[in-house]
Amino acid sequence: MVRKYSSVFLVLILLHITTGSAFSSTRAEKEVQRREEVKAQVEKHGTGEKARIRVKMMDGKTLKGFIEEAGADSFVLRESASWAPTTIAYSDVSKIKDKEASTCQKILFVWALLGVASLVLFRGNTD
Fold this sequence. Notes:
Blueprint: H1 2-23, H2 27-45, E1 52-57, E2 62-70, E3 74-79, E4 85-89, E5 93-98, H3 103-124
Antiparallel strand pairs: 1-2, 1-5, 2-3, 3-4
């Protein structure tokens, strides 16, 4: 009975070791994958003043501006506050967001305008 359980236990351990290493990715692989995703996002936005983005860095700092130039390992962000060019390595970026308003923000803005317009119209008709 003990031999049966020990052999099953041994088989389970061997399966765990062999499949665990095959399916898990290393930290370096995850870093390369994240870097490639950031690079693809920068390429998607393009360059120029219309390519406005928000960049969240790995250290938690957030930069806003537009992509002036994109290279193989880094890109140049022209900050909107100071107009200073900042070279940022793809590996230093945590997340990139569009600077444009989200759909939810646009919908809320339209509803707020409708509310103000209805107040103005109804206030004028209460004579």
